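Protein Record: Sequence and Backbone Structure Tokens
======================================================
Tokens: labelled as protein backbone structure tokens, with as many entries as the chain has residues.
Task: work out the structure tokens from the sequence, keeping to the layout shown below.
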Amino acid sequence: MSGDGQTFASAHFGVRSALSSPAAKRIAEAGQRYRASKGLPPEPSPAPVSRRRRALVTAETPVRETLVDRIFRESAEAYGVTVADIKGPSHREGIAGARHLAWVRLLTETYLTYKRIGDLSNRHPSTVRKSAIAYCERHDIPFPYNRTVVQ
């Protein structure tokens, strides 16, 4: 301790000690004497306790859009559907196309795995892989996420 009468709890957590200040000071001095007798360096002063309060989050507080959310939103807008449609069970052509576009973009623009993308879309990872490959073939673009195993 720093020898200023603070206990570990009060120095690090802002908690008031149950010990009186003179008693806490004696304990801190005893600890410093012990460290000095063992040839140890004195204990560093504790970091100051932050008194900053967290900002109040309300319904009007803007929410930051993540990259994944942006990709889903842009893919939905490109096909004129909603993000809920993309994540839903529908197999309609426009919705499936938007879903496949989102999966190809997620595979190329993020480091997400097939499993994680499937979890985000409520689909099996093999569905994500096969659909992304089929989307790339339909639109004559190279599939950018081939994982080949070299033996």
About this structure: Residues 21-37 form the longest helix (17 residues). The helical segments are 8-13, 21-37, 67-79, 83-87, 93-109, 114-121, 125-138.
